[in-house]
Amino acid sequence: MASMSVAEMIGLFLNDNGKVNFEAFDGSSLGPKDAPLHIHVNNSRAVYYMVDHPNDLGLARAYLQGDISSPELIPGDPYVVFKELMALKPDLKRPNPADLARILSSVYSHGIRHPEPPSIEGPSRWRRRAEGLMPHSKAGDSATVSYHYDQSNEFYRLFLGSSMTYTCAVFDTPEDSLEDAEWRKLDLVLDKLNLKPGDRLLDIGCGWGSMEIRAAQRGIKVLGVTLAGEQVKWAQEWIKREGLEDLAEVRQMDYRDVPEGDFDGICSLGMMEHVGFKHYPSYFQEIFDKLKPNGRLLNHQITRVNSKTGKSAGEFIDRYIFPDGQLASPGEIETVIHDTGFEVVNQENLRQHYALTLHHWNKNLVAGWDRAVELMGEPKARLWGLYMAGCALNFELNNIQIHQFLCVRPDDTKMTDHYPLRPWWVKDSEVLPTQVEAPKA
Known about the structure:
The active site is at 391. There is one protein chain. By secondary structure, the protein is α/β, with parallel strands linked by helices. The protein folds into 2 domains: 6-108, no CATH class; 142-408, Rossmann fold (3-Layer(aba) Sandwich). The protein is 41% helix and 15% strand. The chain contains 17 helices and 11 strands. It has helices at 6-11, 44-52, 56-64, 79-86, 97-108, 125-130, 138-149, 153-160, 178-193, 210-217, 229-242, 280-290, 315-320, 330-340, 351-367, 369-376, 378-396, and strands at residues 20-24, 29-30, 37-41, 68-69, 200-204, 221-226, 248-252, 263-269, 291-304, 343-349, 400-408. The strands form 2 sheets. Strands 7-6-5-8-9-11-10 form a 7-stranded mixed β-sheet, sandwiched between helices. Strands 2-1-3-4 form a 4-stranded mixed β-sheet. Helix 12 links the parallel strand 8 and strand 9 (291-304). Helix 2 runs antiparallel to helix 3, helix 9 crosses helix 10 (210-217) and helix 12 (280-290) packs across helix 14 (330-340). The protein is elongated and about 75 Å long.
């Protein structure tokens, strides 16, 4: 059997539509030289990665190592290239078994190899289980949250900006600054919770403390908890700098271990992705039990668009971004909320806002690229550019969404006249929040 070129292999998966040119290390090519997009397969390791994992994990490994590249691609923001690649979907085709056998025979004629994954790749699901890190146990959650968040705080500040808010911002117009949009989101959450000075708020998965700062500025007594030690250090320093220690506190603690109760409000922003679908009932019950009667919950999380697809993320996200992360549909989430005993007052989809947020983060990463590489190394800096640009595109394509659920714990009377008849958080005019500078790393 004659050996196949890399271009011939690619041609079995993709019709040549003139939109992309592939150049491979073996001298073969596919597509016109003047195509708007050029993809370079730089070495044989890229091919072996794809044979081992013919999915997003194989592609990610090759890209992060520099085995696949493109002159049109900006490492801190590969969005444009991703969008052009997504446009190739109608030209994809499925090779027949005989062609797949030819590809494998040709590749393995050069030797059977299984190249090591990039050093920044996390362990697989089965390896985490073998090490005793059961999904969504306290030990498992601590390990997986630390894996993602205990990076360099300076690195996160490069792309998150001064608000250090790692969740979807809220924009009035696409021209709004990231900082204004992030503070507006925090204000929206607090407005929906309708808390007044002296009320008590629990912030589950508090991140670097932006909600604690914002709530305390309103006179709200706020406790934030996170499993990430680096976030706790940053948040405590920020609170001290603003002179808000009498109102704001951040602890390194599992939300299940918070001893206090009778909170007037609880918020959870971008934390539910770590909980696991099977644990939703116990999660919402824990929150229900910690709220006063008539207390409110604002739950803000990324969602799937329907309940037909699986809950778990693909191999790339699982190994590099959110180990054991799961997403559910809005309907499934709301069902669990109702079954727990909450009344859902409002549900809002912020999908378009998250796409805009991610574009800002990518732009910031590009602006701070040299420092990002210095802090984290190029593969990890590439990883965050890849992850954020991919998410932006998926939000735009409505492959994923993000929802806020505003919920009330009923009192013993089950009456529903303890909140206004119309949405109280909607204002005739929005006043931009005062910007608060976070401490420098």
